[in-house]
Specification:
Layout (H helix, E strand, L loop, with lengths): L17 H5 L7 E5 L3 H7 L5 E4 L3 H4 L11 H14 L4 E5 L9 H15 L3 E3 L7 H9 L4 E6 L5 H4 L9 H16 L4 E5 L3 H10 L4 E4 L7 E4 L1 H4 L16 H17 L17
Parallel strand pairs: 1-2, 1-8, 2-3, 3-4, 4-5, 5-6, 6-7, 7-8
Helix pairs in contact: 2-4, 4-5, 5-6, 8-9
The structure holds 3-methyl-2-oxobutanoic acid (KIV).
């Protein structure tokens, strides 16, 4: 990070802003990950430019089958936790399904709630054809918005599955149009999910705001992954995820060891016992 970055009152570097993120277009790739809790945000923050409180929280932490059931209250609670745990990264909170589609005034009210109650700097909306007008309404009224095109998880009920988008020329043109519309409406960055490399390249070359790819190849201006996927918390990982750890395996091993130790009375031992008697 540059030595000229502004500092907060305690001397720590100030949080990145949407302008810092926007300036990275075509430059050093943006490092982005999802975060839902304060301790995880604390661990990710030093290495990340942007932390997304994604509505994937519904599937990752709450065991929901998709993101449709996620509520505004859940997003606010997790947004507050991530803000408490982070100091440097820009924090963006997902607007959940149903909180912004009914109309721009409803979207504005809900987005303002998110920003006021969490302290996060921006919201993200999945940018289907009807949403560009809402993005324009929000951004003109001081709500920073990140768009999300391509595979849109909140559209799973309409689309029938989580499948990559832009396989046909018509579908690719549709994704391209949605990306253009989101940027023209004032989105400061656009997540591009689950599209083939040529389409990601075209979107990245066309938009003058950064594209943040997930399953959209290395051509994007930044990358984002669901943190629990890249840490190996699930048995199955999508094709576009690289596993950087096997936390599920490590946790299973640690818990099995603990269980054996308790059953064999090897835990707690003398070091973990207050005023242990000599015989312990
Ligand atoms: O909800 C989420 O985690 C997301 C990312 C996959 C971009 O939208």
């Amino acid at each position: 990070m540059s030595a000229q970055r502004p500092q907060s009152s305690d001397g720590a570097p100030a949080r990145l802003t949407i302008r810092d993120i926007a300036r990275r277009k075509g430059r050093e790739p943006l490092v982005c990950l999802t975060a839902y809790t304060a301790p995880m945000a604390q661990m990710l923050d030093p290495a990340c430019d942007l932390l997304l409180v994604g509505d994937s929280v519904g599937m990752v932490l709450h065991g929901l089958p998709n993101t449709v059931g996620v509520t505004l209250e859940m997003m606010i609670l997790h947004g507050q936790a991530v803000m408490r745990g982070s100091r440097r990264a820009l924090v963006v909170v997902d607007m959940p399904f149903g909180s912004y589609e009914a109309g721009k005034e409803v979207a504005f009210g809900n987005a303002v709630r998110v920003l006021k109650e969490t302290g996060a700097q921006a919201v993200k909306v999945e940018s289907g054809p009807a949403v560009a007008e809402t993005i324009a309404y929000l951004t003109r009224r001081g709500v920073p918005v990140m768009g999300h095109v391509g595979l849109r998880p909140q559209a799973v009920l309409a689309d029938g599955s989580f499948r990559a988008r832009g396989r046909t020329p018509e579908e690719a043109a549709c994704v391209m149009a949605e990306a253009r519309a989101a940027a023209a409406a004032g989105a400061f960055a656009v997540v591009v999910e689950g599209v083939a490399e040529p389409l990601a390249r075209e979107i990245t070359a066309t938009l003058d705001v950064p594209t943040i790819g997930i399953g959209a190849s290395a051509v994007c201006d930044g990358q984002i992954l669901v943190t629990d996927d890249m840490l190996g918390m699930f048995d199955w990982t999508p094709k576009f995820v690289r596993r950087y750890a096997d936390l599920k395996g490590e946790i299973a091993q640690a818990v099995a060891q603990y269980s054996q130790d308790v059953r064999a009375r090897r835990f707690p031992g003398v070091p973990e016992t207050y005023f242990a008697s000599a015989k312990a």
